[in-house]
Design a protein that fits this description.
Layout (H helix, E strand, L loop, with lengths): L2 E4 L5 E8 L9 E8 L8 E9 L10 E9 L9 E3 L3 E7 L9 E13 L5 E2 L7 E6 L17 H12 L6 H7 L19 H13 L25 E8 L2 E8 L3 E9 L16 E7 L2 E7 L10 E9 L9 E9 L9 E6 L10 E2 L10 E8 L3 E8 L5 E10 L2 E8 L10 E9 L2 E9 L2
Parallel strand pairs: 11-18
Antiparallel strand pairs: 1-6, 2-5, 2-8, 3-7, 4-5, 8-9, 8-10, 11-12, 12-16, 13-15, 13-17, 14-15, 19-20, 20-23, 21-22, 21-24, 24-25
Helix pairs in contact: 1-3
Length: 447
């Protein structure tokens, strides 16, 4: 607060400070204190005030009246004529705003200001600007927060992926929040092009990994603290093996998982163009200071970690101090676009043990498909493996594998258009037999 154009020696002054009391104010401010500025640091100046606080709202804001008195104890020792650029300092708090509300107005207003000489003569100190308008900007606006939970994370990415591939569609409000491309670096807002596509996906991915919008404003990533190890029921467990050779993570989940976000603190080493190995599609990362952020998801929306044990990711890079690395954030998104909240996690220093391969037939991807799809399977022992495709009537339409295979995981690409007569659209079944292990899954050819 400033005192300008003072034309008489002021010994004392008083005023009322009104907080959030204008007719169009929102109750988002809370007065905290008022202090003397550098222009009146002489201890003979005394500042006294009394706060009449209104009821606190749910966000912590309140409508306040503050009675302020500033005076000098020594006779005729007031402020001489002139300008005082730092008379008083007011400290206030702005409430946390709802995720989708931005540019909310409130104010502080000076009322009933009065000054006096040491002889008791009044001095006119009517403020030339008696109101300070405060526009609160939300750290998280609507940009990129597709599901409107106040957080920008991998779940918003999965919603855009599902919209692009047609698995699900965004409603009008979700679409508006997802349409953030193009967004030129330095611009405060994007220039939406009316489409939600891979351009928006790329922008949102960069925002989440960098932690800032293209204009440099920090995002609200809902600073998530990992849950403690659970001793009872949980929906999954993630085990991190950390050694000087890198980080390997395994996931054992009761649900199918389509997206994962990991943030690791204490990473002092540079990943040096690390290539992340994951069966979930692709791995993306960003390193800033000692924080390594990782996103795992499939931009094509096809790949998924089926329930059970899976290699979550291999992140190979040289680590000087594996013991310093901590899990700062871990988000798992299931196929129903829900965050898994009941899970365990564990850090083990050292290289991961050899994980025995089990018998498993995975869901084909993409599904539905036209005309190509991929089928993965694994076997635990050397076996004669037979993989065939059947129609709804049980008629065999293709033999994909019929040979001895060593233990391991395999992948078969099948083009339905190469089969005799070109297969029509419809439901088909693929059946794996390896020794006594037999399993069948359904897939859809959609032309």
């Amino acid at each position: 607060m400033q005192l300008k154009d003072l034309n008489a020696k002021v010994q004392a002054l008083q005023f009322k400070l009104l907080v959030s009391k204008a007719f169009d104010d929102n109750t988002i401010l809370t007065f905290q204190n008022i202090q003397k500025g550098s222009d009146i640091n002489d201890p003979s100046w005394v500042l006294d005030y009394n706060v009449f606080r209104g009821p606190l709202t749910a966000n912590g804001g309140s409508v306040d009246e503050i009675y302020v008195l500033l005076y000098n104890l020594n006779q005729n020792n007031g402020l001489p004529e002139g300008d005082y650029d730092e008379l008083l300092k007011v400290k206030y708090r702005i409430a946390n705003l709802p995720a989708l509300q931005d540019s909310i107005k409130s104010s502080m207003k000076i009322s009933e200001a009065l000054g006096s000489t040491y002889q008791g003569y009044p001095i006119n100190i009517t403020p030339s600007r008696d109101e300070l308008v405060i526009i609160a900007r939300n750290r998280v606006g609507l940009y990129g927060d597709v599901n409107a939970d106040g957080c920008l994370d991998v779940l918003d990415i999965i919603m855009i992926v599902d919209h692009i591939i047609g698995r699900d569609s965004l409603d009008i409000h979700e679409f508006e929040r997802a349409d953030i491309a193009p967004w030129i670096t330095g611009n405060p807002v994007p220039y939406p092009d009316g489409f939600v596509n891979v351009l928006d996906l790329a922008v949102l991915q960069e925002i989440i990994l960098s932690g800032v919008y293209p204009d440099g404003t920090p995002i609200n990533d809902c600073g998530y603290i990992p849950l403690p190890k659970l001793t009872g029921y949980s929906d999954g467990k993630v085990t991190f093996y950390i050694s000087q050779d890198g980080i390997t993570a395994y996931l054992n989940s009761k649900d199918d998982i389509v997206g994962v976000q990991i943030e690791l603190g204490g990473v002092g080493d540079d990943p040096n163009n690390m290539i992340i190995n994951t069966d979930l599609g692709q791995g993306y990362y960003s390193k800033a200071d000692d924080l390594l952020k990782v996103l795992l998801y499939d931009r094509q929306g096809n790949k998924v970690f089926e329930a059970g044990e899976n290699l979550l990711a291999e992140m190979p890079f040289n680590i000087t101090s594996p013991e310093d690395i901590k899990i700062e954030k871990l988000i798992l998104v299931d196929k129903n676009r829900q965050k898994i909240v009941e899970y365990e996690f564990e850090i083990i220093l050292g290289n991961p043990p050899a994980i025995p391969v089990d018998y498993k037939l995975y869901q084909n991807y993409p599904n539905p498909f036209n005309p190509k799809t991929t089928i993965q399977y694994s076997i635990a022992n050397e076996e004669l493996v037979i993989l065939k495709v059947y129609d709804l009537l049980g008629t065999e339409v293709a033999i994909l594998v019929n040979e001895e295979k060593l233990p391991g995981k395999y992948e078969i690409n099948w083009n339905a258009s190469t089969e005799a007569g070109r297969l029509p659209s419809g439901v088909y079944f693929y059946r794996l037999q390896a020794g006594s292990f037999i399993v069948t899954k359904k897939m859809i050819l959609l032309k």
